[in-house]
Design goal:
This is DUF2029 domain-containing protein. GO terms for molecular function: hexosyltransferase activity. It comes from Streptomyces albus. It contains 24 helices and 2 strands. By secondary structure, the chain is mostly helical. The protein has one domain. Helix 16 crosses helix 17. The longest helix is centred in the middle third of the chain and has 30 residues.
Length: 512
């Protein structure tokens, strides 16, 4: 067998890596060579990437390009909220839903005492502003973020202007979180920087970024995963602990690292990460826990006592059956435990150790699918994980389409329930359909990730650039020490030739 080049574009690399070679990391993977959707979309801006994009020359490096696009999309999301900023947050109950521009931020400025100068967790909230919520129901680091924004909200001539300014201040701070998020997404997979464009262009990110404060935890989680990919487990653990102090879901990543490090025998890395996470979480939480125990505990008691709410599978069952599902907590915990056991089995039984990002997406998606509530901004938790777990535009856009449908559906449903006898909006049956669309879209992406883990030749990351686990840090190319299936050595991979996307000409193989 001899290899002979066919005609090729001058911007192509000289040859693919031969079998047995180390993966070629001298140039980044270009989605326009490997992804049909990216190749087709590139025609809008002049065609697929050429020599300058290949070698990263010029001012527009991948980091700068992705950050610019992400901030542009964030700005478009802010513009989408303008009808509410002008009037709809203040003019009536349903206007903010009809315009699909609702945000918790201006309402909680008054409803959680920031407008009155009350200190989160320490000052009891009066019923006249809080509707019966005694203390702020958010984790400590998110509460600190909200308080800092309140301190920066100055210069308003009325309470209404203060609410508007508070949303603007928070939006600027969340824009910084977005920049951090996409920079981390670019750098986590060193040889695949353009995969972060999935995050930057995600329509659900633009639509939901300023609904709540979730981007703070999302950005810190992304930073933790970046540090783990650089084999800095202690620093990664510190960031994961801080993210958990802002939102609960990042703690799930420690369970994944336990299983992956078990399979690879990297116990030292796991204990450093877990120790760093515990230490940073305690440093943030213990002062408030000791000085204001009732206020600190409110987030946890509220999460436990909260009834079945919007967007969940449990709400569909409740509405269809008329059963109030008082034991929804129990059902959700059982499903979560069973799902985590399944993910652990996948991690230990798959023919090759699944990538960290793959399992991270699966466990966070499981948490979302089994939770009692699904707020529209929860999609932010999954967007960067999806981009790292399965960087394929077709599958990503299918899922995002389902999420955008849910985003519109929940506001139209709230408009319907709040419009009295007029009943303008989406009725209950229609809302159940958009919930199912969200659930099925997420399940679809989960199934694609599971398939990639069980059949690594379908994994875009491993197939396109010959990586093992570029986000795995100490796990990358580590041999298996413990498995529940047949133990196989981590193979030496070769980078694949570009797939036939549009006018890409590949190297061929001539058989004698």
């Amino acid at each position: 067998m001899t290899s002979a080049p066919t005609a090729r574009n001058s911007s192509e690399p000289s040859r693919p890596a031969a079998e047995g070679d180390s993966p070629d990391t001298s140039f980044p993977v270009r989605p326009t060579d490997q992804d049909e959707v990216a190749a087709a979309a590139s025609e809008v801006v002049g065609g697929r990437a050429g020599r300058r994009a290949l070698h990263g020359s010029g001012w527009w490096t991948p980091v700068r390009a992705v950050v610019a696009v992400a901030l542009g999309m964030f700005a478009l999301g802010m513009l989408q909220k303008v009808p509410c900023l002008d009037d709809a947050w203040f003019s009536g109950q349903t206007a903010q839903y009809v315009h699909a521009c609702y945000s918790d931020i201006p309402h909680l400025y008054t409803g959680r005492g920031f407008a009155d100068g009350l200190l989160p967790y320490f000052d009891h909230l009066p019923d006249r502003i809080s509707g019966g919520m005694e203390y702020l129901e958010y984790p400590v680091l998110t509460g600190a973020f909200m308080q800092i924004a309140a301190m920066l909200t100055i210069g308003g001539d009325s309470l209404r202007q203060d609410q508007q300014l508070y949303w603007v201040v928070n939006s600027v701070m969340l824009m910084v979180c977005t920049a951090v998020l996409v920079v981390c997404a670019v750098r986590t997979h060193r040889n695949r920087p353009w995969d972060a464009m999935l995050v930057a262009l995600a329509p659900a990110l633009a639509l939901t970024a300023t609904i709540n404060w979730d981007l703070l935890a999302v950005a810190m989680t992304a930073a933790g995963m970046l540090l783990w990919s650089r084999s800095r487990p202690l620093a990664a653990g510190v960031l994961i602990g801080l993210a958990t102090a802002a939102k609960l879901y990042p703690v799930l990543l420690l369970g994944l690292l336990l299983v992956l490090c078990w399979r690879a025998g990297r116990w030292g890395a796991f204990f450093r990460a877990a120790g760093g996470a515990a230490l940073s979480w305690l440093v943030v939480n213990v002062p408030v826990m000791v000085l204001a125990p009732d206020g600190w505990a409110k987030f946890y008691t509220f999460s436990q006592e909260r009834p079945v709410d919007f967007g969940s599978l449990w709400l569909v069952i409740q509405q269809r059956t008329g059963n109030p599902l008082g034991d929804a907590n129990v059902y959700a915990i059982i499903l979560m435990v069973l799902g985590c056991a399944g993910i652990a089995a996948l991690a230990l039984c798959a023919p090759r150790r699944p990538r960290f990002a793959q399992l991270a997406f699966l466990v966070v998606a499981l948490f979302i699918l089994t939770n009692k509530v699904y707020s529209p901004q929860y999609v932010l938790w999954l967007i960067p994980l999806a981009a790292l777990a399965r960087p394929k535009w077709r599958d990503f856009l299918i899922w995002q389409g389902c999420e955008v449908l849910y985003f519109v559906g929940i506001w139209m449903y709230l408009a319907y329930t709040g419009s009295g006898d007029k009943r303008q909006g989406l009725p209950e049956d229609g809302y159940q359909l958009v919930i199912l669309a969200h659930l099925l879209g997420t399940l679809f992406l989960c199934l694609m990730v599971v398939r990639d883990a069980l059949r690594p030749e379908h994994d875009p990351v491993r197939r396109d650039d010959g990586s093992d686990d570029p986000g795995g840090g100490v796990l990358d190319e580590a041999p298996d020490v413990f498995t529940l299936g047949a133990r196989t050595a981590t193979p030496k991979l070769q980078r694949s030739t570009p797939q036939p996307a549009r006018n890409v000409v590949r190297w061929g193989t001539a058989r004698e």
